[in-house]
Backbone:
């Protein structure tokens, strides 16, 4: 089914928005997000590996030809370093490792080089935004005191380690190792990492801690850096398990109805709200269970299972059976969005991602059942003639479509659905880690530096 869904999403993108970043499935035209500046083709690059994995050979070939002829980084564009890294660098790296086609390696390294000036700050903590022509960087104007964002500068590690590996140039890995060093020197309030860090002073901004937006994939990349290093990156491992310990003590709570959730922390006060983005953490806890101290393994799996259950409830308690952007545990509600501006669903993957990890790690059939519920809801409410659209209010009787087919729907949501219903030997966890945009990167085995070459 996810293959048919991919075909519908891809065919319509191709028909109405080919070469542009994303598709507007209702108005049947291109959609351009300022996150990618003038870099074009986000959907193509994000979808390459999904096409490959689903064996959509014709489509993969036309996507590759587009990359060869049209993907151009010599543009005057201010881009989000994080978004371009996870979608474009990550997408190109996976396409290379899966297919062995040199063009993807070349483009990934070329783009990586374009991103390097972002690190020209007094601390080496990169800027959020970069003009890839002038090399001038800056931070989001809304970010506390000119800060860089934890989930942005903390989500470069996997891709940059691979860029060094593939180019033979150590500079990429050095840049991300330096981020680790800066973080390790700092005092952490209650052992937690605030979302804001000033790249000039090297001091934290506002003490806002979140495992959802602004924080999320930083934690994910600590764990995955350790896994991707064939479990040699002890520093990444320690940082991950220490952080999880602090998260459990200060952020994880149980509602009176018995649902485990992860709250947000603002200078010591808890906001009892969980974002859709936070739901990825169920899969992360389960994936990290194996490396936890031996008496904690079962506990981390259990934590993953509880987060999966809570996130499933957030879907089940809506009319459309798709979860809201954020749900709350206060004012008499549990796992329900109470604010109008938190009721939307933009085809996000995190809940299905967690089902996929839980399925692989426990084989409890309920995760496939829950994934199937999501497929039915997507088909019923998000599928339109011109592709798939997000929804403005998942509690409403009638669909109000937002008219955007996000590129992560093709790279993540559909890929994780496909994996959820595939055998475990398709991209096995011993050999692959997924970047935060679901692009698989090979584990760099310590005994054989060229191992990934054998897996093509
Ligand atoms: C994706 O780009 C990535 O999963 C990122 O980590 C968070 N946001 C979107 C999906 O929701």
Residues:
């Amino acid at each position: 089914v996810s293959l048919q869904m991919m075909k519908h999403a891809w065919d319509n993108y191709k028909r109405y928005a080919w070469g542009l970043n994303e598709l507007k499935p209702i108005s049947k035209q291109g959609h351009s997000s300022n996150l990618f500046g003038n870099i074009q083709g986000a959907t193509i690059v994000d979808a390459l590996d999904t096409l490959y994995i689903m064996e959509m050979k014709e489509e993969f070939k036309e996507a590759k030809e587009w990359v060869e002829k049209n993907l151009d980084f010599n543009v005057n564009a201010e881009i989000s370093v994080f978004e371009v890294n996870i979608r474009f660098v990550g997408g190109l790296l996976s396409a290379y490792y899966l297919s062995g086609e040199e063009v993807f390696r070349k483009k990934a390294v070329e783009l990586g080089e374009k991103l390097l000036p972002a690190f020209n700050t007094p601390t080496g903590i990169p800027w959020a935004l970069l003009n890839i022509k002038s090399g001038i960087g800056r931070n989001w104007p809304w970010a506390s005191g000119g800060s860089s964002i934890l989930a942005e500068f903390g989500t470069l590690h996997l891709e940059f380690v691979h860029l060094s590996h593939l180019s033979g140039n150590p500079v990429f890995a050095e840049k991300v190792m330096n981020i680790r060093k800066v973080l390790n020197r700092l005092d952490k309030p209650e052992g937690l990492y605030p979302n804001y860090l000033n790249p000039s002073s090297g001091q934290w901004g506002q003490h806002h801690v979140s495992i959802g937006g602004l924080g999320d994939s930083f934690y994910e990349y600590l764990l995955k850096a350790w896994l991707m290093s064939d479990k040699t990156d002890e520093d990444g491992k320690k940082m991950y398990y220490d952080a999880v310990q602090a998260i459990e003590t200060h952020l994880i709570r149980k509602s009176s109805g018995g649902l485990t959730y992860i709250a947000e922390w603002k200078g010591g006060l808890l906001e009892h709200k969980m974002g859709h983005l936070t739901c990825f953490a169920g899969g992360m806890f389960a994936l990290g269970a194996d490396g936890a101290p031996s008496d904690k393994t079962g506990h981390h799996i259990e934590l993953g299972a509880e987060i999966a259950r809570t996130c499933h409830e957030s879907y089940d308690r809506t009319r459309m059976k798709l979860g809201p952007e954020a749900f709350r545990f206060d004012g008499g509600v549990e796992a329900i969005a109470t604010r109008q501006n938190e009721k939307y669903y933009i085809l996000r993957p995190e809940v299905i991602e967690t089902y996929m990890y839980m399925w692989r790690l426990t084989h409890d059939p309920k995760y496939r059942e829950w994934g199937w519920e999501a497929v039915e809801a997507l088909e019923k409410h998000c599928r339109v003639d011109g592709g798939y659209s997000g929804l403005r209010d998942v509690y409403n009787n009638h669909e109000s479509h937002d008219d955007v087919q996000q590129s992560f729907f093709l790279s993540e949501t559909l890929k994780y659905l496909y994996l959820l219903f595939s055998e475990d030997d398709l991209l096995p966890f011993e050999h692959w880690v997924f970047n935060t945009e679901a692009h698989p990167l090979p584990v760099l085995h310590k005994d054989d530096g060229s191992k990934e070459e054998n897996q093509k």
Observations:
- The chain has one domain: 1-441.
- The first strand starts at residue 22 and ends at 24.
